[in-house]
Design goal:
484 residues; 0% strand; globular
Length: 484
């Protein structure tokens, strides 16, 4: 099986688990928004706390997930020694973090604005510590190409979370936002128990010399990860401090709920990265690898643009399922902006191949740092005046700068023949179809707008088939064309 075929197969498995999992998680959005009104700020608390969680997860894994892939594929390194050292280092840091939070729970809770609810903070700390530790066993499953087990565990965790949330918020009619965090902790603990095989069956070895070598590779990845997650979460963490209005949590809740609609891009990007990263490091010396990188980028752009158009085309239907509470619908205007930012982030992630395989990860830290600085600047300057709309545009600005910078510098150190002309044509076509969809959504009845938008999506799909996936090249269809 070719590497591109293997990439497609693994992406399908990871993508199915990611997309199904995220779709199931979407069930929590209508549940939370129905039980927690926008005015109460309950969903704003969830949005704010999970933004902190995302940042802390990056800090606790400190680049060791990617570093594990790099070192386990080095011919002179013992793969299980690498795994053991990585697992012990991440687990030890996570345990120390929990101890520190418990020791300083009062000042930490006050700083985060939850002095009256310190349980939110310590529960979050324990949960993220477990999740950080589990990142390494999950990386091990990816490295071993155990995509099905990986997907099954992820889906089980999400299904359990949804079941417990439904029991509390729907069946028991609860409305305490804290239970969202308690349930998350219970699910993470259960997942850790289910992964006992990834913690046993080998000798634990902590190789200090190996760890020092890994940390030299990992620290720029850590900085890259911090900057990357700040690009995604900084607006949600800073919003209550920057937006000096009494309805700050209400507005943050509206923004957080509507941004969830755009998360299909995050699903596609994550699924692609899960399958792509092991292949990148496993074949850095292959002669055909450059062509594979360039093709993968093109296909990524095509399918994310198609996903973008499909979400916009049926946004007025999606909102009825994802955000049933009309109090939140005023924020739907951020959806296309957030999706564009996610596409840029995905392109930037694919561009990162050059500095990962050449061990120049410091460049990734620089690009992400500059992009993060741009995002923070946009938020600080414009959020007080424009509210959460500035948060959405800040993501576009930050990822746009990082993406362009990575491409320009990468072509100097590791030139790849990306099909820029073809990707540009797809982008222009998408922009034209998006304008037409916006017109139909605002000026036509719902049924007519859906019909028009379906036709516009079909135009894009037909262009894809004509230019990159001709039917005549498909095995069974090709025979039909030849007979004719």
């Amino acid at each position: 099986m070719s590497k591109l075929s293997s990439l497609a197969k693994d992406t399908a498995i990871y993508g199915l688990s990611s997309i199904v999992g995220r779709f199931l998680n979407y069930l929590l959005v209508p549940l939370y928004t129905a039980k927690l009104s926008a005015a109460s700020g309950g969903y704003g608390i969830i949005t704010n706390m999970y933004a902190y969680t995302a940042l802390i997860l990056v800090l606790l894994t400190f680049g060791m997930e990617t570093t594990y892939f790099r070192y386990t594929n080095k011919t002179h390194e013992d793969s299980m020694r690498v795994y053991s050292t990585t697992l012990l280092s991440v687990g030890g840091v996570s345990l120390a973090f929990v101890a520190l939070v418990l020791l300083l729970i009062s000042p930490v809770s006050r700083f985060m604005g939850y002095a009256d609810h310190p349980s939110y903070v310590w529960v979050m700390a324990v949960t993220v510590a477990i999740d950080a530790t589990l990142c390494i066993p999950f990386a091990y499953l990816r490295q071993q190409k155990k995509a099905i087990k990986f997907a099954a565990l992820k889906l089980f965790n999400i299904a359990l979370s949804i079941l417990l949330n439904i029991i509390y918020f729907a069946w028991l009619d609860g409305d305490d936002v804290g239970y969202a965090f308690y349930i998350n902790l219970a699910c993470s603990a259960t997942l850790a128990l289910l992964m006992y095989k990834e913690f046993t069956g080998f000798s634990y070895v902590f190789d200090r010399a190996l760890l020092r070598r890994m940390l030299r590779y990992a620290w720029p990845i850590l900085f890259l990860g911090i900057a990357g997650i700040l690009n995604q979460a900084a607006d949600k963490m800073l919003f209550p401090y920057i937006y000096k209005q009494p309805d700050a949590m209400q507005q943050l809740g509206i923004y957080g709920a509507c941004a969830k609609v755009a998360m299909i891009m995050a699903m596609i990007t994550q699924a692609f990265r899960y399958a792509y990263e092991p292949i990148v490091f496993a074949g850095v010396k292959d002669k055909d690898q450059h062509e594979m990188y360039a093709k993968a980028m093109k296909y990524f752009v095509i399918f994310t643009l198609l996903a973008f158009l499909m979400v916009i085309a049926y946004l007025d239907v999606l909102k009825l399922f994802i955000i049933q509470n009309r109090d939140y619908w005023s924020g739907l205007k951020v959806v296309p902006i957030v999706m564009v930012a996610e596409i840029m982030m995905g392109v930037y992630s694919n561009l990162s191949v050059w500095y990962k395989v050449t061990d120049r990860t410091i460049w990734g830290a620089i690009f992400s740092g500059v992009g993060c600085a741009v995002l923070l600047l946009v938020n600080v300057v414009f959020v007080p005046r424009y509210g959460y709309m500035a948060c959405a545009w800040g993501g576009v600005a930050g990822y746009g700068v990082a993406m362009i910078s990575s491409y320009v510098v990468g072509q100097k150190y590791y030139p790849l023949d990306y099909q820029l002309g073809s990707m540009a044509r797809y982008t222009v076509l998408t922009a034209l179809l998006f304008v037409a969809m916006q017109w139909s959504r605002h000026d036509l009845p719902l049924w007519a707008a859906l019909a028009v938008n379906t036709g516009l999506v079909a135009i894009f799909a037909a262009y894809v088939v004509k230019n990159d996936f001709p039917l005549s090249q498909l095995p069974k269809v090709g025979k039909y064309f030849k007979r004719r």
